[in-house]
Amino acid sequence: MPSNPAYLHLRDFIEEVGPDPARPSKGLALQLLVSLHIPEKEVQSDDVDIHDIPTLIRFFCEPGRSADLYQPDSFVYAWGSFLTATSQDRKFHILLHAHTVDRHPGNLTNTESYCNRCPEAAQPTVTFQGIVNNSGGQLNSGSTLLHYRLQVTVYDSSTKAEHTFPVTIYLKNGQRWTNFPSLSPQTQVFVGGRIFGTTKENQQLAVLADDIHFLQTMPRTVPPSPASTGKRKHPDRWARQSSPHTPSKAARLTDTALAQPSTQCSSTLQSPATQKNSAIPSVEADKETVVSWPPTDSEPDVSPASKQDSPAERRSQRSRNRISYADILSYE
């Protein structure tokens, strides 16, 4: 069973102060001994014994706070995770691994005046999660309150291991719990309540329940471990990046020229008369006309894909291909 949360809030007077025996090398680790006072209330059950419960408070003193602040007869407020255990001399006690320990302000030189300014006694409050084992008593009937015995598993930081202990929760007589369903064994619940003593049988912590919440029990399945395939392969994301060489402008021009169909002159020459008629309007518009002749064997055809001429070379080619007006008239 996995460890679950279990928290205790208390306020009481310190009886003894000493180093934490579980951490002897830690200078700031302290242990406070408190006789947890349980005030008698109107709610009682004949199987519960109301008495002070020995409580050990273990915590780390804050670096900026002196350990001399915690002295016998000083009043403290403590909160943290708790568990119950039995010492070697068969003495039942509560062990509180406190997250915070605050001292009530005041001057301890006058103990009577200091105690008169401290708060009155109150039942310690607890919240914990546990699993129902069995039940006993009846609601609104008899001198024994309806109760359920729970099994609680927590993590003990002193031993660095899990610790399981029993807690008995009691339901107060009245209309509050009349319609509350009975708890069957193995039911997992979250309980909030107040400590009001210990059970006479087996000496377990007795808690008067204020709230009970049902928790859904999920089957514990261990996820299958993946088969060992050696070193895990990661996708090569850098291979998806663009090439460090940017395509040149000349290559883009070549691709564009290849995509466009080339315009070539007719394989047969036009007749002189046709050339004359077509050339006269050009003469009036321009004194010189550029005539494109089909490629000959002496002039190899240079496609744009094979060579890219510079602007100066293209102007030189146009000047060589020009024909004068006198040459045009000579065809007649």
Automatic annotation (TrEMBL):
| Chain intervals with Polar residues compositional bias | 257-280
Q: Which residue intervals make up region (Disordered)?
A: 218-332
Q: What is this protein called?
A: Uncharacterized protein
Organism equals Talaromyces rugulosus
